[in-house]
Amino acid sequence: MRRIVGYMGGQAGWIALSMSAKLLAAVGELLIPFVLEHIIDRVAPGGSMGTAALWGMVMVLLALAVLAARFQDYDMSVRLLSSIITSRSANSRIKDKARDMKDQVMLDMKKKQQQQG
Q1: With contact defined as beta carbons under 8 Å apart, do 38 and 55 qualify?
Q2: Do 90 and 61 form a contact (C-beta atoms < 8 A)?
């Protein structure tokens, strides 16, 4: 393990940042089917088109946040996740996951700023 760390040299921070961004994107991608399942199983049978549209927007915002995190556009990712957190239509589990993702993005932003400055 020491040999591998030695090969990384000064790039260990960038590698950790990249790995955490990939992990964040993977978690976000796993949440999208969960939201879709919620729409199909709980929202659609109720017949409320407005609620279904709001949940659809939550799913789209989550997908955009994942893309922004994957391409390391942290500001956009934080804005999109914040809109999910403040959404009236998102349930508490989705909001909790969005908060966790936002915390991870903020941590990644701080690491990147420390490495640059």
Answers
A1: yes
A2: no
CA distances from 100 to 3, 5, 61, 84, 117 (A): 33, 29, 15, 12, 26
Give the 3-state secondary structure of residue 95: helix
Give Cα separations from 71 to 13, 23, 86, 105, 114 (angstroms). Answer: 17, 13, 24, 12, 19
Structural domain that includes position 6: 2-116
Whose tokens are 């796993």? That residue is: 30
CB-based contacts of 57, cutoff 8 Å, min separation 6: 87, 89
Asked if 82 and 99 count as a contact pair (C-beta separation under 8 A), the reply is no
Residue with tokens 């591998």, as numbered in its chain: 4
pLDDT in tens, 45-93: 888 888 888 888 888 888 887 777 777 777 777 887 888 888 887 788 8
Question: Would you state the pLDDT for residue 1?
Answer: 67
Number of domains in the chain: 1
